[in-house]
Amino acid sequence: MRLGLIGLGRIGAFHARTLAALPAVDSLVVTDAVPAAIAATVEAVGAEAADSPEALLAAGVDGVVIAAATPAHTALIRAGLDAGIPVFCEKPLSADPAEAVQVAHLVRESGLAVQIGYPRRFDPAFAAARRAVECGELGWVHTVRSTTLDPAPAPREYLEVSGGIFRDCSVHDFDTVRWLTGREPVEVYAVGTAHGADFFAEIDDVATATTLVTFDDGATGIITNTRYHGRGYDVRAEIHGVADSVAAGWSDTTPLRNVDPDVSWPAGPAASFFMDRLASAFQAELGVFTEVVAGRRPSPCTVDDALAVTWMAEAATLSRREHRPVRIDEVRLDAPGAK
């Protein structure tokens, strides 16, 4: 098949290498707002160049991967829909929740497959944990934990426009706990601290956060995030049920120092970058998208999944600012009777 890739920044360049190596991809067409990025990618993976998204979508592609900056997501998804092809888009649908609702409505009306990028669903251990829940091996799940700990903050320029830790970091954990349990969140309570660089307080953000999520069956999700985890990049999950418990993300690269004198694990070296820690998940995710494009399976992560995560992020942001629990229905713009 012939695929298009829009956006060749850090994640886009990584996706270009992954897509070019997939057996299902015969040709890859790429574009970016920076001509040098296009040239570098063409040379690195042998892709074809397009000088604009419009030119790329007119180049006979069977599907398109959107890895451009968040402000461009909505317009590019619309363009993909107008071209009548399946779309893969990195999270989120939009930085504006109202706009996200609108584009989700357009996707449903189009009948086209749109897959949103949440790679942890494709990590082998996370997928095995999900199967354990689905098969009933754990019994009733009462607690799920999800962690994302970054080694260092992103540049201030990015964080000023990212929407805050709950919208740009915790969202991966929000999707994880909802997907692992198969349950819908009904309420969140979030706290955080701005310890670290002075600018976190200046932009009304926090550098470390914890979110409690209550699900519709009474289970509890516990999510921890930080911009300061000097030992490395840490992504893990635990699911505890009445019959059994499982964990995902524990390995010799887990950036945690065990001080038990009788235990030598983990052996290291610690993971230090999300693209290294989740490399196999990104590969599997885009491999699945080729199956979506071929019509062999539906989208595994839909616009409705993305909206559910949006409401969790909005509720957590409001909860942290107002120091109170926030029900999901307070922030949902697509709920019956919502304004």
Describe this structure in words.
The chain is α/β, with parallel strands linked by helices. 39% of the residues lie in helices and 21% in strands. Strands 12-11-7-10-9-8-13 form a seven-stranded mixed beta sheet. A six-stranded parallel beta sheet has the order 3-2-1-4-5-6, sandwiched between helices. The model has no long low-confidence stretch (mean pLDDT 95).
The total count of strands amounts to 13
Query: Given the structure, what is the number of helices?
Result: 14
**Which spans of ≥5 residues are poorly predicted at pLDDT below 50?**
none
Largest sheet: 7 strands, mixed
**Roughly what percent helix?**
25-40%
* Rg for CA atoms: 20 Å
Q: Strand arrangement, largest sheet? A: 12-11-7-10-9-8-13
Query: Can you tell me the CATH architecture of the largest domain?
Result: 2-Layer Sandwich
CATH class categorisation of the largest domain: Alpha Beta
Beta-strand share of residues: 15-25%
Number of domains: 2
The name CATH uses for the topology of the largest domain is Dihydrodipicolinate Reductase, domain 2
SSE series: EHEHEHEHEHEHEHHHEHEEEEHHHEH
- Helix/strand-derived category reads alpha/beta
> What's the rounded overall pLDDT mean?
95
Q: CATH superfamily of the largest domain, please?
A: Dihydrodipicolinate Reductase, domain 2
Report the end-to-end length measured between terminal Cα atoms. Answer: 43 Å
Overall, the morphology is globular
Keywords: Oxidoreductase
InterPro entries: Gfo/Idh/MocA-like_OxRdtase_N, GFO_IDH_MocA-like_dom, NAD(P)-bd_dom_sf
Family: Belongs to the Gfo/Idh/MocA family.
GO molecular function: nucleotide binding; oxidoreductase activity
